[in-house]
Amino acid sequence: MDKNPINSNEFRKFRLLDKIPVASNVNLYRFQLNGADQTLNLPIGAHIRVRANLNGEDTERSYSPIAYGVHGHFDLYIKHYPQNPSPLCFSNYLNTLIPGKDSLEMKGPYSLFPYQPNQYKKIGMLAGGSGITPMWQILNFVRQNIQNDSTEFFIIYANKTEEDIMLKKELDALAQTYPKQIHIFYTLEHIPVNNTSYGQGYITKEVIQQHMNISAEECKNNECIILVLHNKSKAYTEF
């Protein structure tokens, strides 16, 4: 019998334990595992597929659990879009789920970038919106294994407003605790008045050159990699 709670060959149901607002139109969805000592047992950098029936159609989306090694449950950060009235909007359907009552079908894991400590000297991460969640999964693993992982990370994270920044408290704490290893720069479409700590606008070539200390030579020598993931991406893109 398969002891893993999730399997890439079949969908299995997971009960929703809790739904917690964590940012502007973003919820943390906590799903129950079979036992208090069980973990989701995903490779670092992996995502899962979630399926639901929307308006008579089976619809699937990919999401990345944000925590590593947690027992008894796993968490997904998902942004919903109240301005989108479509009955096929997957994240809006998730926002209607009732903790303790409803379940979701999931399968996995799937991975296009299986993270390995010290595989690269430097890793750049370009994220937009909810695209930060698969990158946080890697960063959270690094945080727990920092003594055995010397990889240097450069994260550039773009959003529309300050309220849209997901996991900001956690990201800031990570950068403050490990300033020589974790570097984070935020850029916003709308900057708060009298706030000079953010960049403004999109992630451009100039922004990357200014805030990502990674050279073309390092990438040519396979010493670094740059990952790109925004909220409409289905997987990592190597840059």
Verbal overview:
The chain is α/β, with parallel strands linked by helices and 239 residues long. Helices cover 17% and strands 34% of the residues. The strands form 2 sheets. A 6-stranded antiparallel β-sheet has the order 4-3-6-1-2-5. The chain has a 6-stranded mixed β-sheet with strand order 10-9-8-7-11-12, with helices on both faces. It is globular, with a radius of gyration of 18 Å. Residues 232-239 have low confidence and may be disordered.
Kindly provide the name of the CATH class of the largest domain.
Alpha Beta
Strand order, largest beta sheet: 4-3-6-1-2-5
Radius of gyration, rounded?
18 Å
Q: Secondary-structure element order, as H and E?
A: EEEEEHEEHEHEEHHEE
Structural class: alpha/beta
The percent range for strand residues is 25-35%
Average pLDDT, all residues = 89
Contiguous helical run count: 5
- The dominant shape is globular
Sequence stretches where pLDDT stays below 50 over 5 or more residues = 232-239
The quaternary organization reads as: single chain
- The percentage helix is 10-25%
Cα distance spanning the termini: 41 Å
Number of domains: 2
